[in-house]
Amino acid sequence: MTTPISLEAMAASVPDGALIALPPDNSLPSVALAKALVRRGARGLRLLGVPVAGFAADMLIGAGCVAEIETSAVSLGEAGFAPRFSAAVRAGTLVVRDCTCPAVHTMLQAAEKGVPFMPLRGLIGSDILAHRPDWTVIANPYADQGEDPIVLLPAISPDVAIFHAAMADADGNVWLGRRRECATIAHASKRALVTVERVVEGNFLEDERLAAGTINATYVTEIAIAERGAHPVALLDEYGTDAAYVADYARMAKTEAGFAAWLEREVLGPRAAAAE
Amino acid sequence: MSEIRPEERLAAALARLILAPDAPPARHIAVGAASPLPAAACWLVKKQGHPVRLSLLHKRSGNPFTEGTRELFDLTGQGRIDLFFLGGGQIDGQANLNLVGTGAWPGKDVRFPGSFGSAFMYMMSHRTILFREEHSPRVLVERVDNISANGVNEPGVFRRGHAQALVTGKCVFAFHPARARFSLLSLHPGETVESIRAATGFGFDAPDQVPQTPDPTPAELELLRGPVCDEMLETYPEFCARVFDRKIAA
């Protein structure tokens, strides 16, 4: 039996400097927990976008919570470039380790399997590889002929996986349907903190139709209830993207002062806190 | 039938490249978020009755992947994605793509969102159609500042495919991997070889006679404005409203 903890207690359990894996805006980020991390004044976080980062990452960067980000992109989708990320790159206040999507997945899959590295095709000739001293090119030991150079990527095991799911059951399993990158990051990470819309009776693993979209409680460290916890991002077929909210953010976050006003209104101020 | 919109011409031009008889068959096409036009072109091909499987990464309902987004890359790694689309903040004459940013790494002058899957997809798909509506010396440069995904490789590096073509708001280029160079394939209305040279930062080849990019046929327009738009409304509402004057019923 799993007892949900509060969102603020969940945020408090994430230490400064932690390596945090986040899903992108089309795959259930916990924006609610990201806002709670801003409120707790987290510092020095290292983010891993799986495989890209979006709204939550841009907000955390703007709020000064982030020292480093490893990702294949940071974007607000239809609302355009991520303004606080772009500003931090320009100012040189953020360490950026550029990646490419399948490399993020591969490094996490190596961690899932408990092996130190995995190979990946592609990449040879890209400046991404040239800027990754931690990535190695070897000759394929199984090549039929020639050297067949191939890239090796180290396993990456984030300290914390953070995402939002539709629901948890009485045994602490969480259900999020087909967005299985969240399962990958839960499997690969040392801890998984999952916010959910609701907790329901029963056990998803006993239901053949729900089991395939479930993440086993083995991988879930804590659960917190956060209604509309993905907002302004969509949650499966439960609610859509709040495009106007993201567009308003994109507009205000163009400047430091505009971002500060947005943060006060939506995250830090008394009205924002009461809404959580 | 009302006037042809530039977007409709581009969608039809992209669809013709998808079906090009001299290119490997397009049985399974994947489309990312980059632009709605490649998605429109793919739907046009499908609605014309060609048996093609479309995997649209950003489709919210009915998303094709049940193992997360890694499934796209696993499929591509196996050689099961025949065609992919890429763009770039900068594209150069050797078909190198820069999605990272201008200036020193990682984009100290203007930072773009990032490379996404390009460094893998460009090499592992059987072919890639490059698409960038803005055709200017700022975008089409002699040499990209940073290479997200390279147009060609040294011999001996495993690579399944290359750019087939580059479609812009002014013309269509074909890419020739053996000599790492573009050639002019067709000109959109109002353009000349000279106007293209003036707007392009890289050198390219041009035959003596360059044909005009054909108008979409009435049948293509009918499909684009009807069934293609129907398929795109959920994922690309702004595009459908702007180009086809169509909105999702409230």
Automatic annotation (TrEMBL), chain A:
Which molecular function GO terms apply here? CoA-transferase activity
Q: Which Pfam families match?
A: CoA_trans
List the InterPro entries: CoA_trans_fam_I, NagB/RpiA_transferase-like
Protein name, UniProt field:
CoA synthetase
Q: What species is given as this protein's source?
A: Dankookia rubra
What lineage does UniProt assign to this protein's organism?
Bacteria, Pseudomonadati, Pseudomonadota, Alphaproteobacteria, Acetobacterales
TrEMBL record, chain B:
**GO molecular function annotations of the record:** CoA-transferase activity
SUPFAM superfamilies this protein is in? NagB/RpiA/CoA transferase-like
- Entries under Gene3D superfamilies matching the protein: Glutaconate Coenzyme A-transferase (3.40.1080.10)
Q: Which Pfam families match?
A: CoA_trans
Q: Which InterPro entries match?
A: CoA_trans_fam_I, NagB/RpiA_transferase-like
Output this protein's name.
Answer: CoA synthetase
